[in-house]
Design goal:
The complex is a heterodimer. Chain A is of the alpha/beta class. Chain A is 31% helix and 28% strand. In chain A, strands 6-7-8-3-9-10 form a six-stranded mixed sheet. Chain A has a four-stranded antiparallel sheet with strand order 2-1-4-5, covered by helices on one side. In chain A, strand 1 and strand 2 form a beta hairpin. In chain A, helix 4 packs across helix 5 and helix 5 packs parallel to helix 6. Chain B has 14 helices and eleven strands. In chain B, strand 7 and strand 8 form a beta hairpin. In chain B, helix 1 packs across helix 12, helix 2 crosses helix 12 and helix 2 packs antiparallel against helix 13. The longest helix of chain B has 33 residues. The two termini of chain B are 29 Å apart. The chains are: A alpha/beta, B alpha+beta. Chains A and B meet through helix 2 of A and helix 1, helix 11, helix 12 and helix 14 of B.
Chain lengths: 232, 384
């Protein structure tokens, strides 16, 4: 994509999001302006209902703002039709969920391969990418295991492999350690830190956990849909 | 093709449910194949096509009425002979061998003309000569002989159902035919039947073979006009028309089969729609995850449709395989007395597979569209 270090990977400009419940407007995000530079590791903190996940969904292009502009990798997501946006997500964004969200009927290998099915890579090329991603998360020996045969920490590492397999510009993680025990949490945080430092991945992580946010090189807080710590 | 594994794994997610759906759709396709084959077998009664220029003369009141022997003289006379090179008497005997289940086509035939009127029946000359020389002899189709393990020289008895007599006859030869259904016949001699009927000289049908196709309308016109004002008026049919009247006796079978086929398709669509809707509902979050990874709504639609078509096609292929094994390989028939052969035709296979594919697509269309159009964030929020 030609995004160099210190160029913005994410740029939110006056972004607001309002949901409607029984026709009553429920503002979730209000006038957010935020920039995430390439190679940064940002922790997004705040209490439940503060709008963290909504903000992450807007960055991922799986939800659209009520007002404002969302740019990722210099592309205005708001101007993209759904089909184009889906292709953009496949190429540029890796998403890590709190509950891993692996497909239970597929093996670890097949789960990691999923984003590559949308590319024109041959089976051989896909295999190479999948094995590289599994190697990064240290699970090549578990490639034929189904999610039910893996621990929570291993499942999340497979989910991280799935998120990085297409070498995306941006990694978005929604409470990636929220469902893990201490040891697994530690492993996942070390892995994310390594992806940021060694592989120069730009990461935005939503978390409640101060220990998790400590691994990031920038922390911002959201409260009631408003940024309370000014972005750098 | 790269999505096939995902489609197959999703289809096998709930094995019992998938098994029941495959079994259900397979059963319904089997019903469709069965009806279609019954229809095509009935249509096979329509005879051997126009190349033999045959016409059948029967009583205008139907096959249950006899024709007078006196008509034969007219049919062999100067009015008809320029248009017909061969004439023969043929009486449907309707007997069975040992058990009523052993029912097949058996006739009292005019032995001197059998070969002329049905030249497609291939038999040895000496067998035919014996048939002509021995009054209580018969000729048997090869397929029928194989079925009952009969051999030349065997004496068998056909038990009468229409006539008040039984036919004790000796097999003097077998014949073959291109159309294997023609080998499911037995011809004993008309004069032998007449002897057992104490010389009542009754004739079921006369069969004539014209010189050219142009003779057929002339024969129909001449014969029916000649008998119009007699006590035994006739109706003369082409071979195809003669066969079709059996279809007509059974009413609008074709219409019935089409209607039943439609009902089968509707039941199948409803049954599978229920399964696919359940399956899609259970996977709302997974579908949202796939969309997050970059799968488009169109790809999701294709995955769900593919799953449905896979299930219906598996059912169809299994039922067709079973049907081909039972009917085309093992030559079993659900009603041997009516259908000596019950062969599934390639067209039936094509129709059934198409019906399964259409049912698969139709049944999954609504749940697939709903699943593919659901907002990703709603899907991720959903707790199933």
């Amino acid at each position: 994509m030609g995004i160099g270090f210190s160029s913005p990977v994410v740029r939110l400009t006056h972004v607001s999001k309002t949901y409607y419940r029984d026709r009553q407007p429920v503002p979730v995000l209000e006038n957010i302006t935020l920039t995430v530079e390439s190679g940064h590791y940002l922790a997004l903190m705040g209490p439940s209902g503060s709008g963290k996940s909504t903000l992450l969904n807007l960055m991922a292009g799986i939800d659209r703002p009520t007002a404002g502009r969302v740019e990722v990798a210099l592309q205005d997501l708001g101007s993209m039709p759904d089909r184009e946006l889906a292709a953009f997500r496949a190429r540029n964004i890796g998403f890590i969920f709190q509950l891993y969200n692996l497909i239970p009927v597929l093996t670890a290998y097949e789960n990691v391969e999923l984003p590559l099915l949308l590319t024109r890579l041959s089976g051989k090329e896909r295999a190479k990418h999948v094995m590289t991603a599994l190697d990064v998360v240290g699970l090549t020996d578990r490639k034929d295991h189904y999610p039910r045969q893996l621990s929570g920490g291993q499942e999340q590492r497979v989910a991280i492999a799935r998120a990085i397999v297409s070498d995306p510009t941006l990694l978005l993680a929604d409470e990636p350690t929220g469902d893990l025990d201490k040891k697994s949490e530690e492993e996942v945080l070390v892995l994310l830190r390594r992806l940021n430092q060694e592989f120069k991945k730009t990461i935005v992580m939503v978390t409640h956990d101060p220990k998790a946010s400590a691994t990031a090189n920038r922390i911002i807080h959201l409260e009631k849909g408003v940024l309370v710590a000014a972005p750098e | 093709m790269k999505f096939l594994r995902l489609i197959a794994r999703n289809a096998l997610r709930n094995r019992l449910r998938t098994f029941l759906t495959v079994a259900g759709s397979g059963f319904l396709i089997f019903v469709l194949v069965f009806m279609q084959t019954a229809l095509s077998e009935m249509q096979a009664w329509e005879g051997e096509g126009p190349q033999y220029n045959r016409v059948a003369v029967q009583h205008s009141m139907g096959l249950a009425q006899w024709l007078p022997i006196g008509l034969e003289a007219y049919l062999r006379g100067p009015d008809i002979q320029p248009h017909a090179k061969h004439v023969m008497k043929l009486n449907w005997f309707g007997g069975y061998y040992q058990d009523k289940m052993n029912f097949f086509a058996n006739f009292g035939a005019d032995h001197a003309h059998l070969r002329d009127v049905w030249p497609e029946l291939v038999m040895a000359d000496d067998a035919y000569a014996k048939y002509c020389a021995q009054k209580d002899s018969c000729l048997v189709g090869q397929s029928l002989a194989t079925k009952f393990k009969w051999k030349v020289g065997d004496r068998i008895t056909l038990l009468g159902t229409i006539y008040p007599c039984d036919i004790a006859t000796e097999i003097v030869g077998t014949f073959k035919a291109k159309n294997v259904r023609q080998e499911e016949q037995l011809f004993f001699r008309w004069d032998y039947l007449d002897e057992l009927m104490k010389g009542r000289r009754i004739v079921g049908t006369y069969w004539l073979r014209g010189h050219t196709p142009g003779d057929i309308p002339k024969l129909k016109d001449l014969i029916d006009t000649h008998t119009r004002n007699s006590s035994d008026p006739t109706e003369t049919f082409t071979e195809k028309e003669f066969g079709q009247q059996f279809m007509a006796m059974m009413g609008n079978i074709q219409g019935l089969v089409v209607n039943l086929g439609f009902i089968v398709l509707v039941i199948m669509v409803l049954m599978i729609a229920n399964t696919i809707a359940m399956s899609a509902r259970e996977r709302v979050t997974e579908i949202a995850v796939l969309r997050t990874l970059g799968f488009t709504p169109q790809t999701i639609l294709l995955l769900i449709l593919g799953e449905s078509v896979l299930v219906t096609m598996t059912g169809a292929l299994l039922s067709l395989g079973l049907g081909l094994l039972l009917f085309n390989v093992a030559h079993l028939s659900p009603a041997p007395q009516f259908f000596p052969y019950f062969l599934i035709k390639p067209a039936t296979v094509a129709i059934s597979l198409s019906a399964a594919a259409v049912a698969g697509v139709l049944s999954a269309m609504v749940p697939a569209i709903r699943a593919s159009r659901r907002k990703i964030v709603d899907g991720l929020r959903q707790v199933v």
